[in-house]
Specification:
By secondary structure, the protein is mainly alpha-helical. The protein is built from 6 helices and 2 strands; from the N terminus they run αβαααβαα.
Amino acid sequence: DVNELGYGDKIEPFMRDLAEGSRIYIWLTDQYLKSPYCMFELHQIWHRSLMEAQNEFQSENTFDQRVLIVLGDASVRLETDIEVYRLFWDEQFEAISAEMQIMHEVDLVTLRDRNAISRFKSNTGSILRYVRSRIHHSCFEDIKV
């Protein structure tokens, strides 16, 4: 994004374009799983892959075939590891919901952010369990392109 976006550009269209890629590399870190931008991107990739798989049973562009994950410092081995991220997004949802209650008018950006956070807290566990069930790379050098 540093090379592609300039000052004042919207990041959401860029992240949607990334989700359309035929080969996507994700470095799954604790910071990634707590970033609204990264989580938006991850959920877009997940959603696109699921939609394609439902349309074509043996689709060549499923999540496994398109996405290579390097597991950084994010731990997803246990349910309690995954729960940490759901709780984090629960807290973010509560914070933005509280902010919306004191606003006189809720702007479109705030509403979109709240809806995105709602998806993060609802779907992140499923995505991480899926990632956990697959062999993944531990460093970029392990990836055979």
